[in-house]
Structure formats: structure tokens, C-alpha cells
């Protein structure tokens, strides 16, 4: 045993002796650069720097060409011998613009953004630290490219290119977050994510079904959480962050802590965050239609309407949340990397503010309408293997188990019956992704995916006076949803200036649901689907010069019907009830993109993309019948029967444009503009505007950055959506919209002026402060049931060690 131990230690020492560490620093400050990427083609290897700017480049030894990338810096190309000659220290020079950003969302593997036909936007940790978004939904909004809708403060539903909710895909550490109960209406699942624990955020615009399967129609939002970092020396590597933050508009009190502990082969990351939000105060200058200067309170078993002391408070909208993450990494050799991650998120109950705005018979419609605690838990095992062989150079196996719990709790005004529906989803997934460089000019990415969702749904009614409970109809049937897909994507470079990408995927989806006819006399007791979908894409990137990129992409995408589509019973709008329809088919999207990026004299960067999407066989809510009746009593009200049906064709087109101008003295200007139009077919053959095509919106910024100081003054805005242009399904929602001169609902244009500042006192401490909505505008983003924050003072202190 002693001999074996001695031999093992000698081998470990030998491995350490042959490992080689490089350090990458900033030319101006000499500070280490974290997350810089070193990539070589021969050998096919990659390395990334840690928080000390260090990376192990043993696998790159002997490479003739190594490219060193970091956003905001000029890309350097060196050989291993060059790096060795510089004593393994690389100096990077800041660059006004960089087209060589490394992204992963297009194929699940690291690629240069300049080789990808689709438009991709990245949000860096530095941007998140500077802007201080309160939730992951707000984090997407700071990009200026994603529109965010909110019906409650504990929410945030992204809209991308005229699509939203279950026509967009979310991934966390490469794992699909969408479940079988992601609905067509606005969803708030994205708030499960912790912005403090996200290392990289990417948004892939347009179809992503070839790689990601169902739901990736309008885009893919990819979140990579903090990765454990190994020690590159004999000592233990410890690094971390602690942040505390306060915001005045909702009396926010937030705290976050994360720590990384790394050894040679093992590393751990622990992260915990806590948020507490009071009711959100809206601005003082704007439409009075957004004011609800009362709330309902139950006193001595009687519902009473209470007049608010501050009519600008949106009551109820406060809530609290906690997030925890634990990751463990084991790297037994240079070729094998094993990672386990545990995520947990839980909110308190929170009011759905727009439902509290509804009225009936000159009184509040509801005394209570809350989402119950929203919980998310994920276990994720990721095994990466690198070996240049016949079948693959790199292999990634992801095994994941997720648990979702959400509920809805409501009680009508002066009613003694409180209803609660609880939904639980157990989601299991397997992803096997492989990449192979078949020649100097060709790379292949391929893989398989299996997903299983088990849906459990219950309903309960409780008499608040007696405490006696009884079973009521559940929101969903008991169901299983499965998906099995295989894909292949090819990247070919016929020359230095041209890159071609093609891909194809076949997906089989299976749904089995059992309906309880105790409460509703459905003419069926089960629904069974077993269908397939074939999708593909072809794209090209042409680079006439180093400062000029032209992209074109054609792609298809699909969304298979899920349990929410087939089995839901709910009040979709006043006087209407949606019932199950087990005869649904997949909807298909056909998309075309054309865009370019051009840098002029290294001082101006212009980015422009135009797109057109056709959604065929679209699932839309239409009038329906139940046992020959077009209306039924639901929640005590005679309601029109409706159901989702493959009954329409929808079209969405638009442009995304951006520009950035560098000015002398550390100043710069930038803008992001988004214009989209959508329409969908109605029953009688007419058309209506698409619900999720947001009005014209964007952000204009004036930036200043010099050494330890960073400042930004920015202007966020949304254009008007007139009553004539309102979607049919939105025009009757009095609780959401303002009234125009004719008394019709519309979404007014709005703007906010904002200022942010960051100062780095020392290598450890930094202070961020800002004022949002300086002019205290009362505004409400389109389709939202909650107004945005009024004048909001933010201060945050961060310590990095």
C-alpha cells in the first residue's frame, strides 16, 4: 500500500511538473483578465483564465496558432513557442470593437460569433454589476434587445421578435428549463434564476429548434452559471464576491455571497442570494388610469376596501425570494471534466396585480388573487471528455432532474370560498452533444436529447370561516410529456471569408393525459399524442474584410403541443373560459434573417438585422363548444367556451438595429432599436395584431469610462400602441391599459431618463449607485398589468476577494 501511495504521489508530481500556466493581463493597468479564452485548432484545445488571469495551457502545447480572445480587447494570435518566449505572460490591448467574441448558444460548443449566421447578443457579468437588475428578467432587459412584460412584481416575461412564453426557450447550464406547463400567456419562470450567480448570458435570435428542439421559435436564452475554478498552483485557490443592495422604489433589501474553493483536481462554488421587495411605487407623472388607490383587506371575516395613504403604491406587489447554488467539479485528467450542480429557488406568495385591478358590480372582483410560492430545484451532472478520435473530439453528457412547483390562490370579493390550484412538474432530461473537426475547414456538431415531464395537478376549495376543505377541478390533467430528438449541424469554411452552416433535426413528441370528468363533463377521458417534427436550417456568413460581416440565415422551428395547450381549464378573460382540446398538432415557424455588422475607422460600429417569420398551424384561442354548448357556468359566471386550436397563420417581421460610437476622452454613445410588426389570422378571415409583438422600443446611452470610474446616462423608451392597432385579445383588458380620447384601451408611449455610476475604490471594494426614472414618469410597458418603478434610487456595495 505504501508503494502504491508513493507511486501515485510521484505521478501527481510529474503531472504538476509538466503542466504550464499562462497569465493574461491588461496592457494599461496590468490587472489580470478573467474569462479570456485561448483556442487552438491543432491540437483542438481550449483554455479559459480564472479570476487571477491564469489558465492551464498544457493541452495547447506545440500549437502553431493560438488565438486569445476577450470581449473589449484586440484578439491576439500567437504560437505556443511565442507564449513560451514571453515567459508565459500575455498582454492584451483594449479595442474599441471586437467581432471575435466567443459564444456557445448556437451549437452548445464554443464558437466565434463572427462565424454564426444567427444574431446573438451577450450580457456580461460586468454589465450586470453596473446596471444592478433586480431579477433575471430585468437582466435581459438591460441589453436593449429584449422586451420584458410584467403582470406582477414577481415576474417578467421576455418578448423576442414577436414571440413570447412557450415560443421561446430557456436553458440553464445547457439544460432545457421549459416544461410541459409553459403556457401561451405571460410566464414568470425566469425569476427562478439568480443574476448574481450567472456568469454568461446569451440570447440567440430566431429559430433554434435544430439544436434545442421544441419551443425555440422566437429565440433561445442561454444562461451559464458560475463555474468552479481549479487551482493552478500548489496552494488552495479561493475567490468570491459579497454584494448588498438597496433600491427606494420598492424598498429593496438584497444580499448575495459566493465563494470558489479550488484545488488541483477538485473545486467547489457556493452561492446564496436573498431579496426582499415591498410594494412597488409607480411614478407621479402619467395616465391616471394606472392608479388603483385602494386595496382589499379582510377585517373580522369581512372584506373591506381600504383607501391607500399613498395612491402611487401598487398593492399587493411585494414579495421575497431566496436562491442557493452548489457546484462541485472534479477533473481527474486533462481530458476529463466532471461537474455537478444543485440549484434551488423559492419565492413567497405574491399578488398578481392586474387581477386585483378587476372590478365587478362596482366592487373589486377579487379579495385575493395570488401566485403561491414558486419553487425550482435542479440537479445537473455534466461530463465532458476531450479526445481526438474517429467519432468525436469533444463529448458532453448532461443528465438533469428538475422539480417545479407553482400555485394559484384566489377568492372573490365577499366570498367565503378560497380556491387553490397546485401544479408540480418533475422534469428529467439527457443531452449527449458531440463535436468533431473533420478537416481544417469543416466541423460537425451532433447529438441526441431525451426529455420526460411528469405533471401532477390538484385543486382544493376552503371555507375561510369553517376551515373545511374539499376537492375542486385541477388546472391540468395528470399527464406525461416526452420528447426524443436527434440532430446534426455542419460548419464548412470554403475560404477565409466565407462560412456555411447547415443543420437538421428530427423530433418525436409523445403526450399522454388523463382527464377527471367529475367537475366538467368532457366528452373524453384521455388524450394521446405521438407525432414527429422535422426542422432544418441553412446559413452563411461572409466577411469581405476584418471589419465587415454579412449574415444570412433560413431556418424552421416547431413547438409541440404540451399539457398546458391540451388540458388547461382557466378564465382566459372576463366572461370566457378555456377548456381542453386533445386534437392539437405541432405548429411550425419558417424564418429568414439578413444582417450585417460594419466597423468604420475603429470608432463607429453599426449592426443591422431584418427578419421575417411565418408561423403555420399556429395554436390560438378560439370559440369552441362543449357537448354542443357554446357557454358554461365557470366560477359562478356564464362564460363563453374557448379552446386552443391549430386555426391560424401568423406573420411577424421586423428590424433590430444598433450603433456604437467611440469619442475621445473615454466617452462613447450607443443605441439599440427594435421595431416589429405581427398579425394573426382570425376566425372570419380578417387579421389582428399579434399579442406578443411589442411596440417600437430601445435604449440610447451616453457612457464615460476612465480608470476606476464608469458613468452612464441612458434613455429607455417605448412607442405607442394605439387602440386601432391593439390585438383583439388585448383590447378588452381595462385593468391593464389606459384610455384614449375616445374611451378605448391603448398603450401610451413612454420614456425614462436614468443615470448609473460605478467606482472601484480598491481591488476589493466597488460602489455602484444610480437614479432610474429621474423624471418620475408613470408608465406601463405594453401588455403589462403592473406599472414600472417611479423615481428609484439604487446603491450597491460589492466586495471581491
How does this structure look, described?
The protein is mostly beta strands and 801 residues long. The chain has two domains: 1-95, Immunoglobulin-like, CATH 2.60.40.1120; 224-800, TonB-dependent receptor, beta-barrel domain (Maltoporin, Chain A, Beta Barrel), CATH 2.40.170. The protein is 6% helix and 55% strand. It has seven helices and 54 strands. The strands form ten sheets. It has a 22-stranded antiparallel barrel. Strands 10-16-17-14-15 form a five-stranded mixed beta sheet. Strands 3-2-5-6 form a four-stranded antiparallel beta sheet.
Named CATH architecture of the largest domain: Beta Barrel
Could you estimate the helical fraction of the residues in percent? under 10%
* Number of H/I helices: 7
CATH class of the largest domain: Mainly Beta
Subcellular location: Cell outer membrane
Keywords: Cell outer membrane, Membrane, Receptor, Signal, TonB box, Transmembrane, Transmembrane beta strand, Transport
Family: Belongs to the TonB-dependent receptor family.
Membrane topology: Multi-pass membrane protein
